[in-house]
Design goal:
Layout: H1 2-18, E1 21-27, H2 35-49, E2 52-58, H3 64-73, E3 80-84, H4 87-93, H5 106-109, H6 114-118, E4 137-142, E5 145-149, H7 150-156, H8 166-175, H9 191-200, H10 217-231, H11 245-253, E6 259-262, H12 264-274, E7 278-281, E8 294-295, E9 297-303, H13 310-320, H14 323-333, E10 336-337, H15 340-343, H16 346-349, H17 354-360, E11 364-365, H18 373-388, H19 394-412
Parallel strand pairs: 1-2, 1-3, 8-11
Antiparallel strand pairs: 3-9, 4-9, 4-10, 5-6, 5-7
């Protein structure tokens, strides 16, 4: 009997040694907040499947995207990684991520909020055969809404911002500008603060052939509207051209501005300070297009081409995006679930602040999916700030963006 037990023990140890191990890199995360939830879910996965997971969390301060590129170049990529969108589209451009259409069942894909899942589909024609394929699967998301002071709105007789037009936005921002209070807080440092008005006007950054569209009438209309908030209507706080958004958030908490546009992280912080004085509203809609498009971001999972265990990596991916596990993660992290059925859970749908974020996700989109996305963001931000500071007209600034990006694309071989 003892000999049988010894044999069984040896066999068990041998099987454990032969168990498949996958490497999982996780960009970001908080050791005191969400990472314990991820580790717990991984431990449960290991027990349920017998697949071992080597989990490595890389803080954003340590540049996980750069480290991933180095690992890929060295042939030492992880099997699966959680990254910040739109980085997966940069990786896809160089053919280093695995399309997920066949690894993720259609019925699972159907559970996601359509706009967020669509953002995971590759849009470019290069490399051939990848256009329209899923190059990532979203984990969680966050969008931007109007965060406002209910008490100041009530004092000035302004209705909650749930169905405003651009004209309403201007009228009420002026009504909310009084004494030492400014109606609308913002910052020209962030593309997310002004690109929304371009999208609402029907503008695009690039066309379907990746040609820049910064001088289009729609792009001009959107940036002019943002410029007018500063200089024509004078509803924006002083110093907004170069302000940090956390300073704008502080001004809302102090009652120095009546509203501004920000994401869920800030809403959580503000609610801790303001309680029920904090309100959340939808972005204003363009009078012609009817769009109220917001800027959203997401973190997503990718499976790397170099992986020798793609099926096992897909099993872990499916485990983590399970409805209940996604709810568990998002409840702790404070982010919004990427699955529609998870977002419908009462913890989100019945929360007066989070419910508005969920509604806004119906008309939200992310930054462009192009290898030169960061370059474009830097040039656009710089030139818009020049216009806001009065150093150039909006037309001159956008013409400079157009010329600079076209020249850069030609140099890089994206345009002839």
């Amino acid at each position: 009997m003892k000999r049988c037990l010894v044999v069984l023990a040896v066999v068990s140890l041998a099987l454990a040694a032969w168990a498949t191990e996958i490497t999982f890199w996780f960009a970001g995360g908080d050791p005191a907040l969400d990472l314990p939830v991820v580790k717990k879910q991984i431990e449960e996965f290991e027990k349920a499947t017998g697949i071992k997971v080597k989990f490595i969390a890389i803080p954003w301060a340590e540049h996980p995207h750069d480290k991933l590129q180095v690992a890929i170049a060295a042939g030492k990529a992880p099997d699966i990684a959680k990254i910040g969108s739109p980085f997966e589209h940069v990786l896809a451009r160089y053919g280093v991520v695995e399309p997920l259409d066949q690894l993720i069942p259609a019925e699972v894909q159907a559970t996601f909020i359509p706009a967020i899942l669509e953002d995971c589909r590759y849009k470019a024609a290069v490399p051939a055969g990848l256009k329209g394929k899923l190059v990532s699967i979203p984990y969680f998301t966050d969008t931007r809404v109007i965060l406002y002071r209910k008490d100041i709105f009530a004092e000035r007789g302004v209705p909650e911002p749930l169905d405003w037009t651009w004209d309403d936005f201007v009228e009420y921002a002026q009504q909310l500008t009084f004494d030492d209070v400014y109606g609308f807080g913002t910052s020209g440092r962030y593309n997310s603060q002004f690109i929304i008005f371009v999208w609402q006007a029907g503008g695009e950054i690039l066309d379907e052939n990746d040609y820049p569209l910064f001088t289009s009438p729609e792009f001009l209309e959107g940036i002019n509207f943002y410029w007018d908030l500063y200089h024509t209507y004078r509803v924006v706080q002083p110093g907004a051209v170069n302000a940090h958004l956390w300073d704008v958030r502080k001004m809302l908490a102090e009652g120095k501005i009546a509203m501004y546009i920000d994401c869920g992280d800030s809403a959580r912080v503000l609610y801790e300070e303001l309680g029920d004085k904090l309100g959340a509203g939808l972005l204003p809609k363009h009078p012609r297009t009817g769009k109220r498009t917001a800027f959203f971001g997401a973190d997503s999972f990718v499976i790397l081409k170099q992986s020798r265990h793609k099926q096992e990596a897909a099993k872990l991916l499916l485990w983590l995006i399970d409805k209940d596990r996604m709810i568990e993660y998002c409840r702790v992290s404070g982010f919004l679930p990427a699955r529609a059925d998870a977002a419908a859970d009462p913890v989100f749908a019945q929360d007066p602040i989070k419910a508005v974020f969920i509604r806004q996700l119906e008309d939200s989109r992310g930054w462009i999916k192009h290898p030169e996305a960061s370059f474009i963001a830097r040039i656009l931000r710089t030139e818009v700030q020049e216009a806001l500071a009065g150093n150039k007209s909006v037309e001159e600034a956008l013409r400079a963006v157009q010329e600079t990006v076209v020249a850069h694309f030609k140099e890089k071989g994206y345009l002839r």
